Amino acid sequence: MSDKNPKAADSPPDSGNSATNQWFDELSDYLKLNDDDHQWPPDDDSIPPPPPQPPLFVPNAAGDFGASGSGGGTTHLHGSSEEISGSHQKRVAFRTKSEVEILDDGFRWRKYGKKMVKNSPNPRNYYRCTVDGCPVKKRVERDRDDPTYVITTYEGNHTHPGSY
DNA sequence: CGACTTTGACCGGCGC
DNA sequence: GCGCCGGTCAAAGTCG
């Protein structure tokens, strides 16, 4: 890898992939570390998806994500946390290897929208925590290069104990 | 009966 | 000033 980043190499000839890749560009910074020769699944040589592995990933949040779900299938975790200055909300992006996008992270989500984004051939799904008073939102999108991977972006902190 | 999902339309913000 | 994209809300329908 020298100049052909999967992102650049995969960049559509269309115009409008510079500003739209804002978060993707950030993500790519994290994702790229696995695109070339760095796979997080260090020992995925025999990782059967069946085992319920909750995508529990508490970056540094105040234990907001006290998840303890029951898993939704395969889950290879890899994410990036970013604190929004000026806002106490937290944005956390994950890339999870899963056949399903409905990963049970210990919370219940209600889909409130679906949108086709230009950066991805796949639609983006918008979920919201069903718990009253919980401002947490979740954005789920399939990876462009690996449809088997799901990019989940959490926004906000849960104001209620997890585990339903 | 209740809860959740799905589709479409509308609005706002940003960029050119 | 106009156009484009993203994001959210609302209503209806379906399933458990």
Give a structural overview:
- The chain is mainly beta.
- 9% of the residues lie in helices and 25% in strands.
- The protein contains two helices and six strands; from the N terminus they run H-H-E-E-E-E-E-E.
- The chain has helices at 6-9, 22-31; strands spanning 79-83, 90-97, 109-116, 123-129, 137-142, 149-155.
- A six-stranded antiparallel β-sheet has the order 1-2-6-5-4-3, covered by helices on one side.
- Mean pLDDT is 60; it is low at 2-24 and 29-72.
- The protein binds a DNA duplex (16 and 16 nucleotides) through residues 16, 19-20, 110-115, 117-118, 124, 126, 130, 139.
What is the helix content? under 10%
**Terminal-residue CA separation:** 44 Å
What is the makeup of the main sheet?
6 strands, antiparallel
Count of DSSP H/I helices: 2
Q: Which structural class best describes the helix and strand composition?
A: mainly beta
Q: Give Rg in angstroms.
A: 16 Å
Shape: globular
**Could you give the order of strands across the largest sheet?**
1-2-6-5-4-3
- Approximately how much beta-strand content do the residues carry? 25-35%
Mean pLDDT: 60
Pfam family, one: WRKY
Protein name: WRKY Transcription Factor
Keywords: DNA-binding, Nucleus, Transcription, Transcription regulation
Subcellular location: Nucleus
